[in-house]
Design a protein that fits this description.
This protein is an alpha+beta fold. The chain is 19% helix and 35% strand. Helix 1 runs antiparallel to helix 2 and helix 4 runs antiparallel to helix 5. The protein is rod-shaped, with a radius of gyration of 45 Å.
């Protein structure tokens, strides 16, 4: 039984068995006409292929082709593909009566009355002809008319090809282009707010107040009492010569406070030990004073820091440094809170090992929650604050020597245009020159069109149309 007879019998059986169910229970249309139409389409069969054989394809449909007959490894012949079977999306097939696209394929009302300048190779090769011809695969050369693409870099893409290659475009707009720089940071003491308590003469620690590391102290709060022979000698001279300015200057040079000097002048006595008080409000970072110890001149007894303002130090990579400016807003995030400050200092050197530069952000710390060496996340807002002409990053084609975009000129035409780019951020690039708001640029598959544009320009320079009666090269 032939395949057609078997299919006919099957369709008839299905129609007979399903007619009552379809019409009675489903309430739908009678299936017999549907099967009849399906059979009619099948019986008609595919349209017969016409035209010459243009190439041969693997019999299993694999993307393997040949210009001449050949066989597979298992001895099967390649399938001959005729001209009518070769799909062409870039131009319509104008039938010339032989079932294949003729030399004027693509001619129509749009090109009526126009003069053909020459014919170019359909595969983009540097080959032209003054008369219609075919290439080695039987494909017609494409006519080029007067006025077609005066710019050799302009590319015309058919709608079918635009769809197949996934070409997409976007409107050029004005927008704020900013790119936050995020770097790790560390909380540090403000160096200007750290004070060391020390004597300027050799002394013995007589008494230490109940103050330890980590305690907060107030300005003028007693810390330690010391006995210093040199200070006592200067005090005795001051009491003996109350009007002598040199004696007062000497004891002041030994860093004795004005309050202690005034008390000695009032009582006219020299105390056995001199009390040293906290010079500022702050946190005791270090206590070295121990009762009974001898302290040499300049030895640190206490180290106190004012934490009302704090620094955050962050290392910015060298490639991000160009966008950092003094005065830019910065957000500092520490566990449990977020603070806002400004970039105060950009240190004038680059770390040789990390290729980064340190910046400093100053922050108020009235409640003292920011502590030295605490870890912080720093985010610096870089870029313009005013809207600028910008395009998606994917629209910019960079060759190293230039930057360009592809302009969508309408009617499937695309042309490259050189641009000058600026800042980048949030997926967009600032365009400083070369574009204006409202134009459309290609954002996807643009490298394919750019490659074709470059090829077309190269071919235009290498393969100028012939001017004599000779055939194509």
């Amino acid at each position: 039984m032939s395949r057609a007879a078997w299919l006919a019998g099957t369709l008839a059986a299905l129609a007979a068995g399903g007619a009552g169910y379809g019409a009675g229970r489903m309430g739908g249309p009678d299936p017999i006409p549907l099967f009849a139409r399906a059979w009619a389409g099948f019986a008609a069969g595919p349209e017969a292929a016409t035209g010459p054989v243009v190439y041969y394809q693997d019999p299993d449909g694999k993307p393997v082709y040949s210009l001449s007959p050949m066989m597979t490894e298992d001895g099967r012949l390649f399938r001959a593909v005729q001209a009518s079977e070769d799909l062409r999306f870039d131009r319509p097939a104008a039938e010339d009566g032989s079932g294949q696209a003729g030399p004027g394929a693509g001619d129509g009302p749009k090109n009526a009355g126009r003069t053909v300048r020459y014919y170019r190779n359909p595969m983009g090769l540097p080959d032209t002809s003054p008369v219609p011809k075919k290439d080695s695969m039987g494909m017609d050369y494409i006519p080029v008319y007067d006025g077609d693409d005066p710019d050799p870099t302009t590319v015309t893409v058919s709608p079918g090809r635009v769809q197949r290659t996934g070409v997409r475009s976007a409107v050029v707009e004005r927008r704020v282009v900013s790119r936050p720089v995020r770097v790790p940071g560390t909380v540090a003491l403000d160096e200007r707010r750290v004070t060391v308590v020390a004597t300027r003469a050799d002394a013995y620690v007589d008494h230490v107040e109940d103050v330890t590391t980590g305690d907060r102290v107030r300005q003028g709060q007693p810390l330690v009492s010391v006995y210093a022979p040199e200070i006592n000698a200067a005090a005795a001279q001051l009491i003996a010569n109350p009007g002598f300015d040199g004696a007062r200057r000497r004891i002041r040079n030994l860093n004795v406070s004005e309050a202690v000097i005034a008390e000695m002048e009032r009582t006219r006595t020299v105390p056995r030990a001199i009390t040293w008080a906290a010079p500022r409000d702050g946190l005791v970072l270090e206590r070295r004073a121990v009762e009974g110890m001898k302290a040499a001149a300049g030895d640190t007894l206490f180290r106190i820091a004012d934490l009302s303002r704090i620094w955050v130090l962050a290392d910015v990579p060298e490639h991000d440094l160009a966008g950092i400016r003094v005065g830019q807003a910065a957000t500092v995030r520490v566990p449990g809170r977020s603070l806002t400050g400004r970039v105060e200092v950009i240190y004038p050197q680059v770390n040789r090992e990390t290729r980064s530069t340190r910046i400093r952000i100053e922050l108020p710390n009235p409640d003292g929650l920011l502590l030295p060496d605490m870890y912080a996340d720093v985010e610096i807002a870089t870029g313009a604050t005013e809207p600028v002409v910008a395009v998606p990053e994917a629209a910019v084609l960079e060759t190293g020597a230039r930057q360009a975009v592809l302009i969508e000129a309408g009617d499937g035409r695309f042309a490259p245009r050189a641009v000058e780019i600026g800042r980048r951020g949030d997926g967009y690039v600032e365009i400083r020159a070369g574009l204006r708001a409202g134009e459309r640029v290609v954002t996807a598959a643009n490298f394919l069109i750019d490659a074709e544009s470059n090829l077309k320009a190269a071919l235009a320079s290498l393969a100028a149309p012939p001017t004599d009666g000779e055939g194509g090269r």
